[in-house]
């Protein structure tokens, strides 16, 4: 395993063979699971990636010759007052500059295309991978944390890669070329570099040692601030309802100032790097002017050569400054790589079997669901469900009721394999659900989650999530079953009525009914209603259950806290603290189950049972 310690973290940026060390480093980190591998994305665009350092190297080549030409203009043209010589070589310098600009533009264009394409592929892979993960893996991250990784951290990687491509050849070529030319002009004066370079390297290493931990802290605090912002934007009505604007503003300001303070510390250290380098460089230039002046006076070098030497030193110094800036960029890039890899390295715990069994969605037995000795835990410490045994025949309606945290939603989340049970097995159609392909399994299941979610578009586009080819007649049937038709038909544009993001232009009850309609388009074999009628009045709720019972031939699971919503169910499962207290019909449970009767009578008058 490649040891990623402080020394080799910065050594690779400080060696003269800068580009080769970077490539070797990136290859070595292919084996390091803690470091993200952006190189594989860049290799998709080999030609463009190759052109960037090539043209940037050619641009640097044009800059190498200009100081020597200037020296000749001074020593020959100006000394001899030869106007023709001066104009000729001035035109050559102008031509080299124009060629350099052309090379620079081509290189920058290739860099932009290759790195933007790389960033696009990274975002696509991240988005696809996140959507492939089960609820178990997603529970480890906040929504804003995943968003920042997909957008902000990918942006950092793109910038870092672009800087690498543009300087891969240019900086080493400019640095080594200028150093060779300077030595060829005056070897003794070049000894100043031996003193200056270690000081520059030491300054860079010390600053980077301060910056690295601040970068990681900055990312974490950005996630925290973004999360608070998201909570307030999505829960703005709740915040206002409880008059908590000042409290939330204070909470945001605390997090925001914490982020700012970290960013300021980071900015101070990052800003200190370049002035420190230039201070060292300026002292070196003073030394060059002093000792170079002595050399000119004794005839050891010409005035033009002294000016050329200073120009080459400036090119060397600018290369060192560029390397220092690159180190800052790569430090940011390393932090972003680690955060992205935290997501991409996650393996989905819900996978398809190697040899899935034949799947026939039209088989009526696919509505049969059985739980055999099922236990489930979110944290492997305490069971959310303990030793559940339940057999559901096709077409039956099953009610699931219990207090908050009793495990109601946990049970129904096992059916479509949002989670896998830790013990026992869940069977559909007589087979363990792990033997089916996940996509096939979910084709026969219609799910209505606790929080009704509609997507930006139209009513028709939302209704076609289960079946993209659903006809208007099928959608209308689903709307009628869900008791949505009465208010949808009032819209002049009917199914083409606009749905705002999150369904914000509908009431809570309307959103619940529309999400139910979406779930029953295409007639699922199994329908799961996870406390999805809580915003409906008793009359509408009763009509909805009656329509589902008589118009849909499916197995229905109703998770609720209202006994009236499940009193007509074929079986009712009563839960308490993850354990099944009793299973039976409404009348049976009223007569023998204290937990159920207590819930029922707390919601209804005893006489009206």
Notable traits:
6-stranded mixed sheet; ABC transporter transmembrane region fold; 3 domains; 609 residues; Rossmann fold; elongated; 4-stranded antiparallel sheet; alpha/beta; disordered N terminus
At a glance:
The protein has 609 residues and is of the alpha/beta class. It has helices spanning 6-14, 18-28, 39-42, 46-78, 83-132, 135-138, 143-167, 170-185, 192-234, 236-241, 245-297, 303-344, 408-414, 438-443, 459-463, 472-481, 485-488, 508-520, 538-551, 586-592, 594-603; strands at residues 369-377, 383-392, 397-402, 423-428, 431-432, 445-448, 457-458, 498-499, 526-530, 555-560, 571-576, 579-584. It has 3 domains: 17-344, ABC transporter transmembrane region fold, CATH 1.20.1560; 364-444 and 526-535 and 548-609, Rossmann fold, CATH 3.40.50; 452-523, 3-Layer(aba) Sandwich (Rossmann fold).
Explain what the structure shows.
The protein is an alpha/beta fold and 609 residues long. It folds into three domains: 17-344, ABC transporter transmembrane region fold (Up-down Bundle), CATH 1.20.1560.10; 364-444 and 526-535 and 548-609, 3-Layer(aba) Sandwich (Rossmann fold); 452-523, Rossmann fold (3-Layer(aba) Sandwich), CATH 3.40.50.300. The protein is built from 21 helices and twelve strands. The chain has helices spanning 6-14, 18-28, 39-42, 46-78, 83-132, 135-138, 143-167, 170-185, 192-234, 236-241, 245-297, 303-344, 408-414, 438-443, 459-463, 472-481, 485-488, 508-520, 538-551, 586-592, 594-603; strands spanning 369-377, 383-392, 397-402, 423-428, 431-432, 445-448, 457-458, 498-499, 526-530, 555-560, 571-576, 579-584. The strands form three sheets. A six-stranded mixed beta sheet has the order 6-9-10-3-11-12, with helices on both faces. The chain has a four-stranded antiparallel beta sheet with strand order 2-1-4-5, covered by helices on one side. It has a two-stranded antiparallel ribbon with strand order 7-8. β4 and β5 form a beta hairpin. α5 runs antiparallel to α7 (143-167). The protein is elongated and about 115 Å long. Mean pLDDT is 83; it is low at 1-23 and 25-36.
